Amino acid sequence: MRDDPHIQLMLAFQEGDEAAFQELFQIFKKPLLNFVFRFCQDRRVAEELTQEVFIRVYRSAASYRPDAKFSTWVYRIATNICLNEMRSGKYQYERSFYGYEGDSSHVTLESTVADKTPNVDDRIEDEESSSTVRKAIAALPDKQRIALLLSVYEQIPYKEIGERLQCSEGAVKSIIHRAKLAVKDILSKELKK
Amino acid sequence: MITKNRCKKHREDLIAYMDGELSEKQARRVELHLEECPGCSAELAQMKTAMESLSLWDAVEPSADFDRVFQRKLNAVRIDEPETRKWAGLYDLFKTLVTPRFTLAATAVCAAVIVMVSVFTAGIRTDIPQDQLHIATDMELFLDLEIIENSEALENFDVITFLDVLEQETNG
Q: Which of A95, B103, B151, B161 has the greatest count of CB atoms below 10 A from its CB?
């Protein structure tokens, strides 16, 4: 466990090395932002929650113990923040199917795909497909959504997802099975329309 | 002949198979089933297509002011930090102490103290008048005096009954 370079950085920060914390921030800000963004589907909220994750990391330095991989620990914090904040209703995040209009700070899924596609027809097609993907993922219960995001986008093995969600590997297998079946069904129905 | 139950069992493993989460033996079992079951093969193909479509959701980059906003928030935390650390230290101590074993032991000690205090205070009455209290205080002393123990015998002596007469006669 101690071979994990991120743990070494966190331990250095624990000893007062502020630069080590900044390095961890630079390494994990993008993957964590994407994880949170895919969960809450609102860019502004995702950025606030991601920053909150790092504030928690900063404040936890004194009590930090390297019991698990650093990424496992930090994603567990992110997962808890996502679940708690969304349940508390503090953030009225955007979950409408066709995204947010009028505020340039709200970068939606559609625009992230559209920017990369030069052809207008392809763009429309991709936007429709990606909206369907977004809708399918948003429809999942919280735990299934988190497990699916970790599995599909972060390529995290079931065992590690279990550590992050604090449940058994068998339970993760079952959660992901249900999540992927649900996504497949929604996508199949939407794409047939 | 493929039974529905066999398909159901294998379908539960299809996603784990697709994710490379099965052991070699389990994966081989699924592969053998797929070779002879067009239904499960089609299901796996659909599932792969569905999961591939999830890749349409590209990663986003943090906004231009993401770092600046975070550093501002972090500075606010740094200002609060000495106070926060003090309370965090107390909280950590609290968390260390308040284990189930500690709670049980503390409860047992409290219960013992309550019982002991109850036993000691039960025998002490505070509503006794002062004169009775005086007698009670000296009771041990009275019991120690032999003359008091034999007071009934003394009452039988006539001489004692007419002690003042005797005294007058003696003086006279």
A: A95
Higher per-residue confidence, B8 vs A166? A166
In chain B, the number of structural domains is 3
| Residue at B43: amino acid letter | E
Domain co-membership, B104 together with B147: no
Exposure string (b/e) for B9-42, b if CB count within 10 Å is 16 or more?
ebbebbbbbebebbeeeeeebbeebbeebeebee
Is residue B102 one of the residues assigned to a domain?
yes
* Calpha distance A56→A34 (Å, rounded): 18
The class of domain A1-95 in CATH terms is mainly alpha
pTM here? 0.63
For tokens 């000691």, the residue is: B120
Task: Tell me the pLDDT tens digit for each residue of A7-24.
Answer: 999 999 999 999 999 999
Please state the domain extents for chain A: 1-95
The residue of chain B nearest to residue A131, with distances taken between CA atoms, is B57
Residue-number span of the structural domain to which B149 is assigned = 130-171
For chain A, give the mean pLDDT: 81
Tell me which chain A residues have a C-beta less than 8 angstroms from the C-beta of B12: 177
Residue B61 lies in a domain: no
Chain A residues with CB-CB distance to B77 below 8 A: 55, 58-59
Chain centroid to CA A148: 10
Closest approach of chain A CAs to the CA of B78, in angstroms?
A: 9
